[in-house]
UniProtKB/TrEMBL annotation:
SMART domains: HTH_XRE. It holds the Pfam family HTH_26. This is Helix-turn-helix domain-containing protein. InterPro entries: Cro/C1-type_HTH, Lambda_DNA-bd_dom_sf. Gene3D superfamilies: lambda repressor-like DNA-binding domains. Transmembrane segments: none annotated. It comes from the Bacteria. GO terms for molecular function: DNA binding. Residues 12-65 form the HTH cro/C1-type domain.
């Protein structure tokens, strides 16, 4: 079974606002593109590198901002 990592968009948005950051500023601090941050907020899966970058940039634990969900098995 394959699993994907997703941002908890409401939590991530709140953390960005609490810290007074723009998406571009967060992206720069995390070493990713603004587009990648936007994709995460829109519910697309993220990479482990993204998780690490965001965690370091915001000073938060993985479990606070991200969740792992199993991907549905494809029909043969």
């Amino acid at each position: 079974m394959k699993a994907n990592i997703y941002a908890k968009a409401d939590v991530l948005s709140a953390l960005i606002a609490e810290r007074g950051l723009t998406l571009s500023e967060l992206a720069e601090r995390a070493g990713v593109t603004r587009h990648t941050v936007r994709n995460a907020l829109d519910g697309r899966p993220v990479s482990a590198g993204f998780v690490a970058g965001i965690g370091l940039a915001l000073g938060v634990d993985f479990a606070e901002v991200f969740t792992i969900r199993a991907q549905a098995a494809e029909a043969a």
